[in-house]
Amino acid sequence: MQRYEYRVVPAPRRGEKARGVRTTEERFALALTSLMNELGAEGWDYLRADALPCDERAGLTGTKTSFQNMLVFRRALAEAAVVVPPVVAAPAPVAPAAEPATPESRPLRLGAAITPEGPAPSLGPAKPDLAAE
Predict the structure, then answer these.
(1) Which pTM value belongs to this model?
(2) Is residue 34 part of a domain?
(3) Domain count of the chain?
(4) Region (Disordered) spans which residues (predicted)?
(5) 32: part of which helix (H) or strand (E)?
(6) Exposure pattern of 85-112 as b/e (b: 16+ CB <10 Å)?
(7) CB burial string 56-80: b at 16+ within 10 A, e below
């Protein structure tokens, strides 16, 4: 099974100035191209772009939600680094011979140490000053 590692970087907000690049769209495309080529040289493959919500502080007590544009890259992990130990089946357990159940060999029951018998105790009226929370 192929395994990947992922890297998430913020998308560029401004274009890069360069000779022969005049419009805003061309400058932004140049910034995006240089970022993708830089990460591609390190072995990262472009996967997708996401706009994710991010809560930020606004003033002393307020928050506002803004959206951050992120680029997601991935690359395959080296197969030599992933070592999966072989699975060895355990031998089937052998059941002991059945013995007749005697009072001494019966398993102990879990529960109260002393089980009182008879009617349950009365609880009395509810206190009016206590409210359910």
Answers:
(1) 0.55
(2) yes
(3) 1
(4) 95-133
(5) helix 24-41
(6) eeeeeeeeeeeeeeeeeeeeeeeeeeee
(7) eeeeeeeeeeeeeeebebbbeeeee
Tokens of 42: 């390190």
Task: Identify which of 12, 11, 5 has the alpha carbon closest to the alpha carbon of residue 42.
Answer: 5
Domain that holds residue 17: 4-76
- What value, to the nearest 5°, has the Cα angle with vertex 61 and ends 56 and 65? 25
Whether 36 is covered by a domain: the verdict is yes
Tell me if 60 is assigned to some domain: yes
Write the single-letter amino acid at 79: E
Q: Per residue in 20-53, pLDDT tens? A: 999 999 999 999 999 999 999 999 999 999 999 9
Mention every residue, 6+ apart, whose C-beta is less than 8 A from residue 24. 15
Question: Is there a contact between 9 and 39 (Cβ–Cβ < 8 Å)?
Answer: yes
Whether residue 12 contacts residue 32, with contact meaning beta carbons closer than 8 Å, is answered with: yes
